[in-house]
Design a protein that fits this description.
Blueprint lengths: L2 E3 L12 E3 L4 E3 L6 E3 L3 H8 L4 H11 L3 E4 L4 E5 L4 H15 L10 E6 L2 E6 L5 E3 L5 H8 L7 H14 L16 H22 L8 H19 L8 H13 L7 H10 L6 H11 L4 H7 L1 H7 L3 H18 L1 H4 L3 H10 L5 H8 L9 H10 L1 H16 L1
Antiparallel strand pairs: 1-2, 3-4, 4-6, 5-6, 7-8, 8-9
Helix pairs in contact: 2-3, 2-4, 8-10, 10-13, 11-15, 13-17, 15-18, 16-18
Length: about 400
């Protein structure tokens, strides 16, 4: 996921306060159109604020209703809003409720005192009052953030100390430190020397047994594919095969969402549409209808745009048509309804997918059989979409 400076007015590429670039996903149509921010949790974590704060700020600035589902990590703003517009509004939230008014660093904690919001800066020690005139202030007072744990404070303190290790330097008008770049380079060199020292102490004798050699070959193949595989539209099939083989080896009842995401990132397939097809085909079995709600958060993190949705349906075709034909073919309408209920696939994508058989993921006759079995659901969703347009 691409990262940007927390303060977008700072163009320094070495600026150490980073956050993910905001993503937006428009769902529904007509009066039911809405914009989902799929990575709001990651953005909020980078800002050390609850995800509901920036989401509510969007609602205040846009005059729109919002929905914060912390349990499922789903944050919605009613209406159609593009990512750049929301990113600009987020800049306003950061300026008002994240940055220290004295040093302009984002190392602040919110303290509620006598119904006032104080911004306690861990970088310079200043305490400044937030803008109490903004509508969000009332929400923050009524929903104060959980206090930062001692471990989080230690980590942040250590990060601050690393930058100021050589005496801090003079601050410019923007609040940044003039010697940030020099400090970071020295710290990197020091880290490199420390690593060299550790490497010197390592035992470099190599296990040459047959099993050890086979294991190293597997590791090299994974690393090589991750580093050199081309874009998923232009080849690089091996990394998806490795991802699928790894998923098949896991126990679907015990493997966590975080472990799956970590493996996808290791193989450089996270965020790629073909990974969505492999994921659906490999993490589900004949109990898919019961498994979808449990894996809804994982699916939302992989399936973020229309191309991903189509690939996920392609994975479903393979799962039903090739692996569990006898057990699942008659259950296709119910499976699609589960995907609809957890808002993984948009109405238009379902309808386009069901229009005609395709040989992209399975043989054409298999695709035809799956989509024929899906007809009750497809007719229902098409009628529902027409009624929504009419309303």
């Amino acid at each position: 996921m691409a990262t940007i400076n927390v303060r977008r007015d700072v163009k320094d590429s070495f600026y150490r306060y980073k956050m993910p670039r905001l993503l937006s996903k428009v769902e529904g149509k007509g009066n039911g159109i809405k914009t989902v921010v799929p990575n709001m949790t990651e953005i909020a974590r980078a800002l050390s604020r609850p995800p509901s704060y920036p989401t509510k700020y969007f609602g205040c600035e846009l005059g729109a209703q919002v929905k914060c589902d912390d349990k499922n990590e789903r944050y919605i703003v009613n209406g159609e809003h593009d990512a750049e517009r929301l990113q600009t509004i987020l800049d306003g939230f950061i300026s008002k409720f994240v940055l220290c008014a004295s040093c302009r660093n984002p190392e602040t904690d919110i303290i509620i005192k006598n119904d006032d919001i104080l911004m306690d800066c861990k970088a310079c020690g200043a305490q400044n009052m937030a803008d109490m005139r903004h509508k969000l202030s009332t929400y923050i007072v009524k929903n104060p953030p959980a206090q930062a744990s001692k471990n989080q404070r230690k980590q942040r303190k250590a990060a601050t100390a690393q930058t100021n290790e050589l005496g801090g330097g003079f601050e410019n008008e923007e609040g940044g430190s003039d010697d940030d770049i020099i400090s970071q380079r020295i710290n990197k060199e020091a880290a490199g020397l420390s690593m060299e020292s550790k490497l010197a102490q390592e035992d470099w004798s190599e296990d040459t047994s047959e099993a050890a050699v086979a294991q190293r070959m597997r590791e090299l193949s994974v690393k090589g594919v991750a580093a050199f595989a081309e874009d998923d539209d232009e080849g690089g099939e091996s990394k998806y095969e490795l991802f699928g083989a790894w998923l098949d080896e896991q126990d679907n009842n015990t493997i966590s969402d975080d472990d799956i995401i970590a493996k996808a990132e290791e193989l450089d397939v996270y965020g790629k549409y073909k990974a969505c097809q492999v994921l659906v085909q490999c993490i589900f079995d004949e109990s898919i209808a019961a498994q979808i709600p449990k894996r809804a958060n994982l699916l939302r993190k992989f399936v973020t745009e229309e191309k991903h949705q189509k690939a996920a349906l392609g994975g479903l075709e393979r799962l039903v048509g090739l692996e569990y034909k006898d057990a699942l073919m008659k259950k296709v309408p119910g499976i699609l309804m589960k995907l609809y209920d957890v808002e993984i696939i948009e109405d238009d994508v379902f309808i386009k997918w069901g229009e005609k058989p395709s040989k992209k993921y399975v043989a054409k006759d298999v695709s035809k059989a799956v989509k024929k079995a899906a007809q009750p659901f497809l007719e229902w969703i098409e009628n529902a979409s027409e009624e929504e347009d009419s309303d």
